[in-house]
């Protein structure tokens, strides 16, 4: 499995590079730990031979520990090996190794010196090469005369050293790889530091088929935005100006070696977003964020990329490089997100000004099972002219012993699809840390040795090697440039582009599938479940947005599914929560404004308002009004088009909805906002109160009040006139005086015919001229 191979290779590389990067330098292989017996534990009887072996192991361990203490005193680094390929004669028949030694002990190291170790034995296999790489240089039989290092011998001293030799003198006779080493020793001939590297001898390589090498140059980064408007860090600004992304573009621009770019459109999308003012907000904090002006490095990097990649083929990953294996494992609901990711790749063509020229699907870690390959083939439209890019660990090793050519094929539900396999060992060499002193030179020599060894395994076969550094490759600038130059200049290599490899004849290989151990490195189901919930809310929100769409969370969800979050659970969770918070705030910006409504009768209209509090986005929803008890409160007819609401940013609209009540009481009315696809976006409830006073009752009551007011007014006017008359002193009752000679009617006589109610038995008039209990009347002529 690739994990085991990678771990083994890293262990080998550390043993080689420790001379460069760490104070403790392995001069000899460290002895394995042995079980130590407790002095209080009873011992089993052992033979004399067994006792001697145990004692020897203990002594070896003690010697190893002593060597480790000595190694910490000195740091040895390799700076350069020239030439990169050694010939049988001429100026390139001599080789030179250059490097530095530093005394870390803090005191003088008497007799400090450096010497070259070598072997005339030509390495015969890649396995043997790996053994030499992990071994101490003392394994090599030949040694030159030590050269003193007086400057390095002084406390904290540093000195440059140079060692060399002649190809013939060290026994180089045939094309192939030869091991060499460098040791630092003290006056007691103790090895304080050392490393093993390799020289490639071209010899008489006539008739050898050169190894075709195709480079995939990754332009992929981590995710920097929670949503489209908020960056969760500002690391990208540094990487564009003077970091790994700048190094990769500059190295490609400095060479004519063919390369094929692997580009994540999300990276170019992020860079474009930095061309204008952007917000940087640390997720999981109360910080409101910092408005950052447009970054000039973003525009400069885009311009450099266009120049460096001009004429080079490139392919795009699905947007944000999703963890395809994890999405497919989760189920169809998430696997379909791969389709969305592929449909959001157009940003790469927009930035570069040209469409992708190669169709390649590269799953995370270069490993995928049949279901994932089928999904990538279907959604990525990897037809017969495209290919998968997979690790060679996904296939059985060649039983014939030599490294197989890169092109093969696998069966998918879409049919047979081509596969380009890349060599794990080569990739680990190239992707190893090369920024520490000396590490780059060791990696260069190992790369040349491995490719020469592959060529020498089957010199008459035409084969292709694919080199694919890790997705987040961070090489030393000089290493990235030199490794491309070596690919073109080494006589046993031939640089080609990826399309040439795709068109090569496939070699039959057995596909072993996806190792179960890799599942532990995927995005987990609990994390993806949270992302799925956010995706569901995003789909709902997108259904209420209207053109022009300025708030879109589609790409934000894809960024949450990126394989770059592997191993970064805490940061991934913080970014996801920041996205959920922002989305929730935008959803809450489209809402129904509840109000209290009362009906003074059995029918009327209720007021309903809807607000769009989003600053930059138009929305379109349909208002749905339903009664909780339709038997007692019915919603009247209303033009359907009046319930489809289109609101601009910050706009609020109201609608009066007719209702009919069958009695008195409080009735619940449910208000819902419905999306264009019929999903419920928001819900509110209001209470409608009815009193039972109908329109006729109101008319009667109003008429009665009008009569009352008129009567009161007339009575008030008469009273006023009477008071005026009394104030004049004539004793008048308010009526005109009777004619002379007229007599009042006798008791019991009927009154005048125009006096209603007068008659026999009526009481005498009161002093104000009114009859008790009757409305006021006039006597005589008005």
From TrEMBL:
Annotated transmembrane regions: 693-714
InterPro entries: DUF6049 (IPR046112)
Low complexity: compositionally biased ranges: 48-68
tRNA processing in keyword set: no
Record's signal peptide: 1-26
The keyword Nucleus is annotated on this UniProt entry: no
Region annotated Disordered, chain positions: 28-68, 722-782
Pfam families on file: DUF6049
Taxonomy, superkingdom: Bacteria
Bias (Polar residues) ranges: 36-47
Annotated keywords: Membrane, Signal, Transmembrane, Transmembrane helix
Protein name according to UniProt: DUF6049 family protein
Organism (species): Actinomadura keratinilytica
